[in-house]
């Protein structure tokens, strides 16, 4: 909630049909989740389970501390949210995502669907949720991770499309960052003390 993917879905839904934006964004998130889960299952075959678990523990701790730092630094969350909304609006207005790839597939999908798909996919690449999905899939049930990530993405993206601007004004980015940071630190502690067998 409150990240670039959320804001893209919210802003696009304000300008275009909600169902089209939601289907494009969710399609991109499901593809990204499957790719991330698959990568998480492949990594342990290339690197030992012990090293993979250690890397996951460090990544969880890093993201947890980073989110807590972001929460601590965000003094005026309203202005930060407004600034981030303006940046995403500029990207949408500049026509980012209008590539030859988009033109080719516009025969099969509407331009709005493709724009939603491409912008969401690119915003999600390298995002915390993608890295968390990869890390979780390295030592947890891959199907459970994929289902859980997909359900989480569906809920957040649906909230963004239905009432993104309203929700973003009610929930501070500081609160989201603090809760997320504590959750990632919990994952790190769990991964350290209860490594996979």
From TrEMBL:
Pfam families according to UniProt: GDT1
Secreted found in the keyword field: no
Keywords: Membrane, Transmembrane, Transmembrane helix
Ribosomal protein is among the record's keywords: no
Compartments in which it is found: Membrane
SUPFAM superfamilies reported for this sequence: MFS general substrate transporter
Protein family (similarity comment): Belongs to the GDT1 family.
Official protein name in the record: GDT1 family protein
């Amino acid at each position: 909630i409150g990240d670039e993917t959320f804001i893209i879905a919210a802003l696009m839904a304000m300008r275009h049909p909600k169902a089209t934006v939601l289907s494009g964004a969710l399609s991109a998130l499901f593809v990204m989740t499957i790719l991330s889960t698959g990568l998480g299952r492949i990594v342990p075959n290339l690197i030992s389970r012990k090293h993979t678990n250690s890397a996951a523990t460090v990544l969880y701790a890093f993201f947890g501390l980073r989110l807590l730092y972001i929460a601590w630094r965000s003094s005026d969350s309203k202005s930060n949210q407004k600034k981030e909304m303006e940046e995403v609006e500029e990207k949408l207005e500049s026509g980012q995502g209008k590539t030859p790839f988009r033109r080719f597939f516009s025969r099969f999908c509407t331009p709005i669907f493709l724009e939603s798909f491409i912008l969401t996919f690119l915003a999600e690449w390298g995002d915390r949720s993608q890295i968390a999905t990869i890390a979780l899939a390295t030592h947890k049930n891959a199907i459970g991770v994929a289902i859980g990530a997909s359900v989480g993405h569906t809920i957040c993206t649906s909230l963004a499309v239905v009432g993104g601007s309203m929700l973003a004004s009610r929930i501070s980015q500081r609160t989201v960052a603090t809760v997320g940071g504590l959750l990632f630190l919990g994952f790190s502690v769990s991964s350290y003390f209860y490594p996979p067998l």
